Structure formats: C-alpha cells, structure tokens
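EI: anyone free to look at a 278-residue chain?
SC: sure, send it
EI:
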Amino acid sequence: MSAEAHRYAVFGHPIAHSLSPDIHAAFAAQLGIALDYRALDVAPGAFNDAVRTFFAEGGRGANVTLPHKTVALALADVRTEAATRVGAANTLTRRDDGGIEAHNTDGSGFVRDVTERHGFDLRGHDALLLGAGGAARAVAWALMDAGVQTLTIVNRTPERADEIADAIGEPGRCYTRYWDGLDGESFNLVVNATAIGVAGGSFDLPTSILKDHSTCYDLSYGAAAAAFKGWSLAAGVRPDWFRDGLGMLVEQAADAFERWHGQRPDTDPVYRELRQRV
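SC: here you go
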C-alpha cells in the first residue's frame, strides 16, 4: 500500500467475518483512491481508547459494527441528526478541527437498496418491522422518511418497540403490536431486523400478514437470513420477492465512502461480485 494512502478502519467484536475491507477496497480501486482500510477487533472495554488512538495517529474515518454502535455515538464530539435520532453510529469521521463526527448510514443504505436496486417504491405502502434493536431503529426512521403509509413495529420485548414509535412521534402512521397480536393485519413489506437468524428461534407469525405480491426483506444476509427466507417462501412469497441485506451492506458502505472521499462509487459491480460469494 502506498505511503500516501489514508487510513480507515472498521471496528467490531468479532470482526473477522466483515466484508467491509473488501467493499471499500473495491470502491477505492474503482475511483483510483489510495486507501488503507483494516478490520480491527476491539473488545467493548477497549473501544473508546482504540478509536481515539486511531484518529490521533492519522485515521480519517471508521465504520463501526456490533457491539460498539451506541458507544460510538457517545464518544463523538459532533452527532448528525441521523445518528442522534437512531441513538447509534456506524460511521465516524475526523473533522478538520480534530474532533470526531458520528453519523449513521444504515437507514439510507436500506432505502437505497430497496428502492433503487430492487425497484420497490415505499410510498403509500404498509410496512411491518420485526425487531427493535439499533438497526431496526435506523430502518424505522428511514421507512417513515421514505413515505410508507403505515409502519407497524413488533418485538419480543414490546417496550422496546414502543420506544421507537414514541421517538418517531407519529401515532397516526407508526404503531406497535404484540408479536402474537398480528391476526387481521396485512402488509406490503415485512422487514426482519431480529437476531433470530443468528441466535435461533422461529418466525411464528401468521401467514395472513402478507398481502398479494408482498416483499420480505432480511437485514442479514447469507446463512443468517435463511430462517426468515424459509418462513417467507413457505408463507407464499415469491423467491424473487425475498431480499436479504447484502445490498444494504454495500449501500451503507457507499454512503460512508462518499462522506469521507466526496465521490460516490458505482455499487452494482461490487454487489454482483459479493453476491457470487455469499
């Protein structure tokens, strides 16, 4: 790597599985940018010091993944609206004054993938969001901003779903329901933001929640999306109307890349290359 390459990184724990170094390397090669981007496995107790050291030693930007997104927001000197309302940051940038800015690209990456890559116009549709973690919070705000007619949020711990709906503050459009209280409801889009595909469990949901031509989307990808895909197809969703989160991963990375370098890469060839691997 050239000595002129600027330093970037992704922080997580664990992090060995991360595709971020490959994605950013592909973006940089596409645009002729010298880049040193590394995956850094940092335990929660060491995160703050590791990030501050990284930026003090010349780091320009960092992506942040589990379990550090909430702490990343707290350590920043400046927080964008997107990061503040989600309550988590996945993108950190060194400012000209030496401070650290926190931003969140999860919601924008999700919407770009759904609307631009997969051609699903979110406006006027009824959406169901399963889960209430950090990624779910980002997606909830993004769905509202994109113009869904209604957003219903369910979570095994209903209080966490209520917190998101209360923060959004549009009771005429954004609702919560109990996980086992969805009978009689139906949706054009069902988004899985739970950890069921990783932690185990089942999607014990009534198939009647799906309308004709409903789309199902899992924020995870690869093996982690298999359980929700299985439920979706068994419930009658066409295979080409099920989407996983690989495209969201690429798009949120592109949003961070553009924030750092002032140029937006072409995400389609990177997505196609990764799709062959995942």
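EI: The radius of gyration is 19 Å.
SC: 👍
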